[in-house]
Specification:
Blueprint lengths: L11 E4 L7 H7 L4 E6 L3 H4 L2 H11 L3 E5 L8 H13 L4 E6 L1 H15 L6 H4 L11 E5 L11 E6 L4 E6 L7 E4 L9 H19 L7 H23 L4 H14 L14 H13 L3 H16 L4 H10 L9 H18 L6 H4 L5 H14 L12 H13 L2
Parallel strand pairs: 1-8, 2-3, 2-4, 4-5, 5-8
Antiparallel strand pairs: 6-7
Bound molecules: 5,6-dihydroxy-NADP and zinc ion (ZN).
Length: 397
């Protein structure tokens, strides 16, 4: 049965080669006149992209100041620096050139500048809701988080190493420029992390016990098959433009709400579990998801057997032989084999971390707080379940 739903994706997508040339016109179109140009550590400077963007803004007569240095798992301290810079320069538009980390940092700055008398961390600490947000535009350089079309942002408070997400439609970017060529410089590891994250944004919506629609399932299954196919191509040939293009578009469609229309909002437990891993240990989000997913799946699959079976048959091409449980388990194994094939971890050890017992207890506690007590649709998880999943992922080789 299909549940009622609201589908809202206002982001204008400009896709393809040389599309970054349109950045200044797009900013003007959405009312920007004083721009904060936000970017990451090195890659966009090294490739010359930041210089090209600055030249476009200059040529269009757009005032701009810049703030680089956003790190993966972006930090609240950088957001606060951006807020200071924004206030000083009366910024009215945020331009994020980078990936999920840069976009999320820009979204947080945009919230803060729009409500100068409020503390932005209160949003992430679930203490209040945003009433306003400055417009954000994106030039995407990595296909992964889907933040270019999503209503979420995830920030790490670097005083407490607490990583928290905040979701509000106000922060959906006005536009996203997506030139697959800009992703050709990605290290293989980041490409693979991105592919896992994209898969997971649809898997989180797919493994549900509430509501479903045939059309949504078919879109979701097609998207996941496409990501698997093209992720493998990129292992062999990282500069394959068409594969980059498929993955880039999948990144946005996987997290703009499309693959969850008609269900109950999805599961999203693996994401909640992972955010504690990257908050505490600073691991890459996609790798963290790959490392935890199999342990989550084995813990919950019996509570969501029809979906695990359908997934095994339609996405992982498992043969329809044996009991439903056997087929479901073969599907889980097939996902892990795919992760191994693209050199992603399937345990915490392979992820490169070995949390102590007390660290796992702490992560489970924080995770439960972050989700307001419990999370999950495939199976509702509470703090004790979260701890068991961390322990299972930690005891695997
Ligand atoms: O900092 P630079 O030098 O740019 O290097 C980055 C970074 O080290 C590099 N990179 C990006 N584009 C590149 C490149 N290197 C070479 N060539 C390029 N073209 O890639 C590394 C990772 O970048 P990052 O932005 O951190 O990656 P991603 O897009 O995966 O974002 C991860 C963050 O997004 C959050 C994650 O939790 C994590 O904090 N998420 C945000 C979501 C959202 N807002 O909707 C949803 C996701 O589930 C996720 O939680
Ligand atoms: Zn994700």
């Amino acid at each position: 049965m299909a549940f009622n739903f609201e589908y809202y994706t206002p982001t204008r997508i400009i896709f393809g080669r040389n599309t970054e040339d349109q950045v200044a016109n797009l900013i003007k179109r959405y009312g920007g006149s004083r721009v904060l140009l936000h970017y990451g550590g090195q890659s966009a400077v090294r490739s010359g992209l930041i210089d090209r963007v600055k030249k476009s803004l200059d040529a269009a007569g757009l005032f701009h100041v810049e703030l680089g240095g956003v790190v993966p798992n972006p930090r609240l301290s950088k957001v606060r620096t951006g807020v200071g810079l924004g206030n000083l320069n009366q910024i009215d538009f945020l331009l994020a050139v980078g990936g999920g980390s840069v976009i999320d940092s820009a979204k947080a700055i945009a919230y803060a500048l729009a409500e100068p008398n409020e503390d932005v961390w209160d949003l992430y600490a679930r203490k209040r809701q945003a009433k306003a947000c400055l417009p954000v535009g994106v030039v995407l350089t990595i296909a992964a988080a889907g933040s270019e079309m999503s209503n979420s942002s995830v920030i790490t408070n670097d005083e407490t190493y607490t990583k928290r997400g905040y979701t509000n439609n106000l922060s959906r970017p006005k536009f996203a420029i997506m030139n697959p060529e800009l992703t050709l410089t990605l290290p293989d590891y980041q490409t693979a992390c991105g592919c896992v994250d994209i898969m997971m944004h649809t898997m989180e919506r797919y493994f549900t016990n509430g509501g479903n629609m045939e059309i949504t399932d078919n879109i979701a299954e097609g998207l996941m098959r496409t990501v698997i196919h093209n992720a493998k191509i990129l292992v062999e040939n990282p500069v394959d433009y068409d594969a980059r293009a498929e993955i880039m578009w999948a990144s946005s469609l996987s997290h703009n709400g499309l693959t969850g229309c008609g269900n109950d909002g999805g599961d999203f437990s693996s994401h909640a579990l992972e955010h504690e891993l990257s908050g505490m240990f600073g691991v890459a989000h996609g790798a963290g998801l790959a490392a935890i997913w199999g342990s989550w799946a084995r813990y919950v699959y019996q509570n969501c057997l029809p979906r695990f079976k359908k997934f095994a048959l339609n996405v992982m091409q498992v043969e329809n032989i044996g009991s439903d449980e056997e087929i479901a388990l073969k599907g889980i194994e097939a996902v892990e084999n795919f992760y191994r094939e693209i050199k992603m971890p399937t345990s915490l050890k392979e992820l490169g971390i070995e949390p102590t017992d007390s660290q796992m207890v702490e992560m489970a506690k924080r995770c439960a707080v972050a989700v307001g007590g419990s999370r999950g649709s495939a199976k509702k998880l509470f703090e004790e379940d979260m701890l068991k999943i961390y322990q299972a992922a930690n005891s695997r080789d």
